[in-house]
UniProtKB/TrEMBL annotation:
It comes from Geodermatophilus maliterrae. SUPFAM superfamilies: alpha/beta-Hydrolases (SSF53474). Keywords: Hydrolase. The keyword rRNA-binding does not apply. This is Alpha/beta fold hydrolase. PANTHER family: EPOXIDE HYDROLASE. Residues 26-272 form the AB hydrolase-1 domain. It comes from the Bacteria. GO terms for molecular function: hydrolase activity.
Length: 286
């Protein structure tokens, strides 16, 4: 995995992030979702590096091998703003003042927050399989609550940890034949670590509170994402079923928007790496 990439811990202030990085050229940072780690990008990162990009793949705070900050009453230690600040510090520590950011699933919320909070740093934004947190919550209906019930279960105190840690493999699943053996091993180590499971749940708890409030403040102030933005969603996942007009949901949040379907299930970086890398490359070259 990640042949030719360096791997290290980087001190970004409040936390240390575990990161792999390699390639040369304009920088792009790839942000994983729940419950994956940075290794979910192991098929995409080399493709982007081979086409002239410096590619940076961190474990987000709380995930994988990165630091797990102490839990706060308001869950702000797991906010997307805190995670975005980490990524900004990471990229600066690696010598990149401006860079593109790609986020999948929970990582897409970090990427979005980074583009909103640090517009001078982010050159391009790619979000995969998501709409903004505030939009998802405000549009919640029976279909969304049934399909994405885990958002609300994970927000409960104590009980989700007990349920997941009773049998992490049964809870999360995962197939090494699909994911790749090394990626699966990294992911499985994470989901069996109680501290990581708690931190991943804190991500969701922050989502319903401080992250929603941050989105509300942006909308009230009229702030929008000013860099070119590409929104992609998996054709064999449920995002378009729940939000038939995905681009319409994103339009009020962006100024330069394109997007569409990609032929994949939810874990697109593992299931359709060639198509995903091709779409990202074309977007960054535009």
């Amino acid at each position: 995995m990640f042949e030719g990439f360096a791997e290290q811990y980087v001190d970004v202030g409040e936390v240390h992030l575990w990161v792999r990085h390699g390639g040369t050229g304009p920088a792009v940072v790839l942000l994983h979702g729940h419950p994956r780690t940075h290794t979910t990008w192991h098929r995409v990162a080399p493709l982007l590096a081979s086409t002239g990009h410096t590619v940076v793949c961190p474990d987000l705070r709380g995930y994988g091998r990165s630091s797990k900050p102490a839990v706060r009453a308001d869950h702000a230690q797991a906010s997307k703003r805190a995670m975005a600040t980490d990524v900004l510090g990471l990229m600066r520590a690696l010598g990149h003042e401006r860079f593109a950011v790609v986020g999948h699933d929970r990582g897409s919320y970090v990427a979005t927050r980074l583009a909103l909070d640090s517009p001078r740093a982010v050159t391009h934004l790619v979000v995969l399989d998501s709409v903004p947190i505030l939009e998802a919550l405000e549009r919640t209906d029976a279909a969304f609550a049934t399909a994405w019930w885990h958002w609300f279960f994970f927000a409960q105190p104590g009980k989700p940890e007990r349920a997941i840690l009773a049998d992490p493999d049964a809870w999360y699943g995962g197939d090494p034949a699909v994911m790749g053996q090394e990626n699966y091993a990294d992911y499985r180590a994470a989901i069996h670590d109680p501290a990581t499971v708690v931190a991943m749940l804190e991500d969701y708890r922050a989502g319903l509170g401080v992250d929603r409030a941050a989105d509300e403040a942006d909308r009230a102030a009229g702030r929008r994402i000013t860099c070119p933005t590409l929104v992609l969603w998996s054709s064999r996942d449920d995002l378009e079923d729940l939000h038939p007009d995905v681009l319409g949901v994103w339009t009020p949040w962006t100024t330069q928007l394109t997007g569409g379907r990609i032929n994949s299930g939810h874990h697109v970086a593992e299931e359709a790496p060639d198509e995903l890398a091709s779409r990202i490359n074309a977007f960054l070259a535009g």
